């Protein structure tokens, strides 16, 4: 009898709070269920453990160094289920683009862990899931906050204050989110270093901007809980202005934001580290979102995704 396993996860984006979150301000992360990752396992009789993915195909023992975190998690799970001598084929299928701030490595790890537990028909708690994912994230990202793993495994938005709070919250929002990839890899480390330099050289002005970004995040949480899409769009615009003032935007980001707003977006900003990566825009409904998405592709976006917010963490009361 063939033994099988399946595990799923999804992308995440930072809705509000980029960069300011590094300095103790809150951030809101949003699960993007439309951008999926899945891992499957099927038992084999060829005496091998093999993996097929867009980055590597071959035997598990030959995984490249940039997949060391994945290899470590697989090793731990095999020991947990006494499966070192079991043979299987694993396939990773991911819609998540790498280095776009969408939590690609965390999503793969979460789906893989869920797949192993399904394969061995074991119960997996949320706490155990995040502990195992944290092992991979420490190898891949050195000092992870835990936000990526928490969000790519959640069906709710996440309210986050570094080293203090990671908690889901209920949302009531009928608007639709449009995500567009500039096609330029985000430069998160460079952007973080830039803000750090500005804090050193212009501490008062930079700290004021960071605090304002934190205040906008608090207001955005209220909007999400009360279906205030117009107000949320205005907060997006204000946050983008502040982030651009810090030198964190990019000409392609600015171009796509302008296109989104001209074509009906209530507001738009970049998401993640900046200086590339993705933008997000709020649309009143899915019809507007589709139009905005099409126009963004026409303007040079390399990919777009449409995520109805009323399918994420909705409070039906």
Structure description:
The chain is an alpha+beta fold. 41% of the residues lie in helices and 24% in strands. It is built from nine helices and eleven strands. α1 runs parallel beside α2 (104-119) and α6 runs antiparallel to α7. The longest helix has 23 residues, at 203-225. The relative contact order is 0.17. The model has no long low-confidence stretch (mean pLDDT 92).
How do you describe this structure in short?
With 317 residues, the protein is an alpha+beta fold.
Which fold does the CATH topology of the largest domain refer to? Ribosomal Protein S5, domain 2
Proportion in β-strands: 15-25%
Unreliable runs, pLDDT <50, ≥5 residues?
none
> Mean pLDDT across all residues, rounded?
92
Percent helix: 40-55%
Separation of the first and last Cα atoms? 46 Å
> How do the helices and strands follow one another from N- to C-terminus?
EEEEHEHHHEEEHHHHEEHE
Q: Report the top-level CATH class of the largest domain.
A: Alpha Beta
Determine Rg (CA atoms, Å): 20 Å
The tally of helices reads: 9
If classified by CATH, what would the architecture of the largest domain be?
2-Layer Sandwich
**Major sheet: size, sense and barrel closure?**
7 strands, mixed
Number of domains: 2
Count every beta strand, where a strand is a DSSP E run of 2 or more residues: 11
Indicate the structural class.
alpha+beta
């Amino acid at each position: 009898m063939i033994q099988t396993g399946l595990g799923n996860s999804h992308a995440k984006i930072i809705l509000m709070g980029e960069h300011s979150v590094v300095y103790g301000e809150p951030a809101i992360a949003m699960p993007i269920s439309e951008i999926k990752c899945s891992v499957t396992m099927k038992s084999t009789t060829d005496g091998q453990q093999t993996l097929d993915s867009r980055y590597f195909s071959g035997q598990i023992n030959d995984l490249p160094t940039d997949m060391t975190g994945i290899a470590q998690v697989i090793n731990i799970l095999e020991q947990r289920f006494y499966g070192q001598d079991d043979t299987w084929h694993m396939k990773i299928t991911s819609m998540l683009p790498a280095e776009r701030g969408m939590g690609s490595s965390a999503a793969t790890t979460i789906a893989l862990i869920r797949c192993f537990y399904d394969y061995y028909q074991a119960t997996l708690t949320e706490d155990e899931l995040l502990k195992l994912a944290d092992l991979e994230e420490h190898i891949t990202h050195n000092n992870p906050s835990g936000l990526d793993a928490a969000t790519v495994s959640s069906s709710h938005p996440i309210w986050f204050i570094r080293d203090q709070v990671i908690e889901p919250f209920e949302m009531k929002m009928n608007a639709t989110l449009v995500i567009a990839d500039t096609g330029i890899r985000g430069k998160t480390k460079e952007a973080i270093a830039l803000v750090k330099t500005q804090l050193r050289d212009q501490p008062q002005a930079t700290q004021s901007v960071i605090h304002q970004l934190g205040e906008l995040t608090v207001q955005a949480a209220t909007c999400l809980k009360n279906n205030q899409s117009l107000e949320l769009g205005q907060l997006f615009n204000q946050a983008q202005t502040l982030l651009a003032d810090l030198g964190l935007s990019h000409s392609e980001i600015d171009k796509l934001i302008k296109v989104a707003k001209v074509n009906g977006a209530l507001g738009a900003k970049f998401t993640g580290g900046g200086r590339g990566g993705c933008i997000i825009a709020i649309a009143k409904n899915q019809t507007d979102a589709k139009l905005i998405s099409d126009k963004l592709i026409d303007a040079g976006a390399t990919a777009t995704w449409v995520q109805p917010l009323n399918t994420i963490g909705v409070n039906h009361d």
